[in-house]
Design a protein that fits this description.
With about 375 residues, this protein is of the alpha+beta class. It folds into two domains: about 180 residues, no CATH class; about 120 residues, no CATH class. It has 15 helices and ten strands. Strands 1-2-3-4-5 form a five-stranded antiparallel β-sheet. Strands 6-7-8-9-10 form a five-stranded antiparallel β-sheet. Strand 3 and strand 4 form a beta hairpin. The chain is globular, with a radius of gyration of 23 Å. InterPro entries: Znf_SWIM. Keywords: Metal-binding, Zinc, Zinc-finger.
Length: about 375
């Protein structure tokens, strides 16, 4: 009962579209990029993915496939889990009632993946786990078509982690049926009084479709009040617009990131042009959301392998003879009037000098050489 799933072809994306916003989607891309032997083909793959050079995608146990440029058969094979590995994975899912709820909510909990790895069940691919094939004449590993397929599949993974489980060998229906024969832990069952088999037998009703993105938000019509205890109508309109936007995001993504009070203040200022004295934080949020804000305000020490790979990309992609000297400190590289900061999300953020400090200058990229136009005058 291993059912394949088909997905419509992705249309051309807007400028600045990102790949993989979920942590498991980023892990998928990292496995593919770390396997690549040619960064030029990766850049072509990113472009092909964004401009829609692939047809519909088919995901089935052990493989993903699409037709590229209307003529090349492109396949990426993924090793399937054994029956014994699936049993160990199901044990980990059933060991905590929240795991089942998270999967049904289209989330992949970190602790579930870690527990699976501890039980010798590799859910997320590692370097060398993806085997690309393509009928095009290019000998790249992967070629630009297979890379584009992997980049587009990261969007599918963002929306539904069951796509990853299907590639590993079993789809959502099989997993739910297998879990129906297992009870949640005694503590959860005592608190809820319902075994997992009964609780999830009927499935979860789908959320309604989000409204079209071009439908403007109509704020509530309120009259300003009077007196010391009157409601600030302007502030209420901002909060209503924010709630509407986040409700739509919840319908589109299935979940919302957890924000601190400070992050939420920056988000409100960025989305509604509020003057809260947070100019640089607002600029960082507009370019990279919560990840961009973290890069602005904190430094960390990335793995040496990530930095070595980024330096090779920078040197290979520089349009001149060689890039200017790099002043490196932790995750921050300064190249004259340009500073590149490496985020925990695996992307490089550009900063330029302004008023004696560093100011967010644009959206991030995985390839740091794609950001050097800020310095080269492009």
């Amino acid at each position: 009962m291993n059912d394949a799933r088909g997905f419509s072809a992705f249309p051309p994306q807007r400028a600045g579209a990102r790949f993989a916003t979920s942590w498991w989607g980023r892990a998928w891309i990292k496995a593919m990029e770390d396997t690549s032997l040619d960064q030029v083909l990766l850049r072509k793959g990113r472009t092909y993915a964004k401009i829609g050079r692939l047809g519909p995608i088919t995901v089935s146990p052990g493989r993903i496939a699409a037709v590229a440029d209307s003529e090349y058969d492109t396949v990426v094979r993924v090793e399937q889990l054994t029956d014994a590995e699936w049993e160990r994975f199901l044990d980990q899912v059933a060991a905590k009632s929240g795991h089942i709820a998270a999967l049904l909510d289209r989330d992949m909990p970190h602790d579930l993946v870690q527990a699976a790895e501890d039980a010798a069940v590799p859910l997320l691919p590692a370097v060398g786990d993806l085997e690309p094939e393509c009928s095009c004449p290019d000998w790249g590993h992967p070629c630009q078509h297979a890379a584009a397929l992997c980049y587009q599949v990261s969007w599918l993974l963002d929306a539904d982690p069951f796509v990853l489980l299907l590639m590993r060998g079993r789809g959502e229906r099989q997993l739910i049926e297998a879990l129906q024969g297992r009870d949640v832990p005694d503590t959860a069952q005592a608190a809820r009084g319902v075994p997992a088999a009964e609780a999830f037998a009927a499935g979860v009703p789908p959320l309604p479709e989000p409204p079209p993105s071009d439908v403007p938000f109509a704020p509530p019509a309120l009259e300003p009040g009077t007196g010391a205890e009157s409601v600030d109508v302007a502030a209420l309109r901002v909060l209503a617009a924010s709630a509407a936007a986040r409700a739509r995001e919840l319908l589109v993504r299935g979940r919302l990131p957890e924000l601190t009070e400070y992050q939420d203040r920056v988000r409100l200022a960025a989305e509604h042009d509020l003057d809260l004295g947070l100019e640089s934080a607002v600029a960082a949020w507009r370019h990279g959301g919560a990840d961009g804000l973290e890069v602005l305000e904190s430094a960390w020490t990335p793995p040496r392998r990530d930095l070595a790979r980024a330096r090779a990309l920078l040197e290979a992609g520089w349009e001149g003879e060689r890039p200017p000297p790099i002043e490196a400190w932790r995750n921050r590289w300064t190249l004259g009037s340009l500073q590149l900061r490496y985020g925990r999300d695996g992307r490089w953020y550009p900063f330029v000098e302004r008023d004696g400090g560093w100011w967010p200058a644009g959206p991030p990229e995985r390839d740091p050489s794609a950001l050097t136009h800020h310095l080269q005058g492009a």
